[in-house]
Amino acid sequence: MLTPSTTPHPPDLSPRQVHISVRELTMAYDDFMVQKDMDFDVLRGEIFIIMGASGCGKSTLLRHLIGLKPPVTGEVFFDGQNLWKLPPKERQSMLLKMGILYQSGALWSSMTLAENIALPLTAHTPLSAKEIADLVSLKLALVGLSGFESFYPAEISGGMQKRAALARALALDPEILLFDEPSAGLDPISARRLDRLIVHLSESLGITAVIVTHDLASLLDIGTNSVFLDTETKTIIAKGPPDMLLRTSTHPTVKEFLTRGQSKRTATSAREASR
User: Fold this and answer.
1) Which pairs count as long-range contacts for 24-30, CB under 8 Å and 24+ apart, including other chains?
2) In what order do the strands lie in the sheet with 32-43?
3) C-alpha angle with apex 186: 180 to 189, nearest 5 degrees?
4) What is the pTM (predicted TM-score) of this model?
5) Residues paired with residue 40 on neighbouring β-strands, in sequence order
6) CA-CA distance, 235 to 40, in Å (whole number)?
7) Tens digits of residue pLDDT in 37-70
């Protein structure tokens, strides 16, 4: 059983270590190949972006990382431990070190925010009801929702629902947070506020964030490293900080994605002007 702390973990100031390693990973649904031969590392404390066009396998990769789907071939390591070769009990203990924010938020509509956030604490810790209530209030305060314990999801805005779901993801003091399209359905201001919150959590708590997104403004603003999944070759075709890839990548697919197709239009205009 876990006992979450009542104070944030101090960030690890030592040289960054590899937190997550993916080696020769191949993903498929029956005979349909999604991605193959994927290799990348996520360093501790990074805000790591998984990007690519719709249907490239971003969310499927996330399912492999959180233990919902075993790979066809390849390995996933957390702190050097092979996720899919651990005994079930040890794998479960490892997965409890992760929190996830689903695209829809996935809050239980019939429960208050406090009851939603208390769920993992009740299921996985020996804490008393009073201790859980105190931790719930702390997690809500951490995401800027102090005083909203008794509200139901339908009574708050979409951006607030995402932050409440993030508070639930933080309930067990995870080392890793995984996000599936966190800005989906949010207005630009709410999306920006959520981005700032993710950066704050990474910097203040030392949390490693892995984010599946195609929100260009977000990934270019907060991403410190990334991989680009390609639908044509069905593998990773670019790695590195998203803003660096925007400036330096010569791959037409990556360039077109990161410029919203502007680079392709510019090249076409240049050819037409030279005729």
Assistant:
1) 24/73, 24/74, 24/75, 25/61, 25/64, 25/71, 25/73, 25/74, 25/75, 25/76, 26/71, 26/72, 26/73, 26/74, 27/57, 27/60, 27/61, 27/64, 27/69, 27/71, 27/72, 28/72, 29/60
2) 32-43, 18-29, 73-78, 81-82
3) 120
4) 0.84
5) 22
6) 11
7) 999 999 999 999 999 988 888 989 998 998 888 8
- Give the separation between CA 117 and CA 106, rounded to whole angstroms: 12
Q: Hey, what amino acid is at 156?
A: I
3-state secondary structure of 174: coil
Task: Tokens 């604490």: give the residue.
Answer: 121
Are 12 and 18 spatial neighbours (Cβ–Cβ below 8 Å)? no
Sequence-ordered alpha helix ranges (H) in 83-233: 88-95, 113-124, 129-142, 158-169, 188-205, 216-222
Q: Which two tokens stand for residue 7?
A: 């104070």
Q: Which amino acid is at 88?
A: P
pLDDT digits (tens, 9 = 90+) for 208-266: 999 998 889 899 999 999 999 999 999 999 999 999 999 999 999 999 999 986 655 54
Both tokens assigned to 96: 């409890």
Task: Find all residues with CB under 8 Å of 191, minimum gap 6, and list them.
Answer: 159, 183, 215, 217, 218
Please count the residues of the chain: 275
Mean pLDDT of 92-101: 89
Residue-wise pLDDT tens digits, 127-177:
999 999 999 999 999 888 989 899 999 998 888 898 899 999 999 999 999
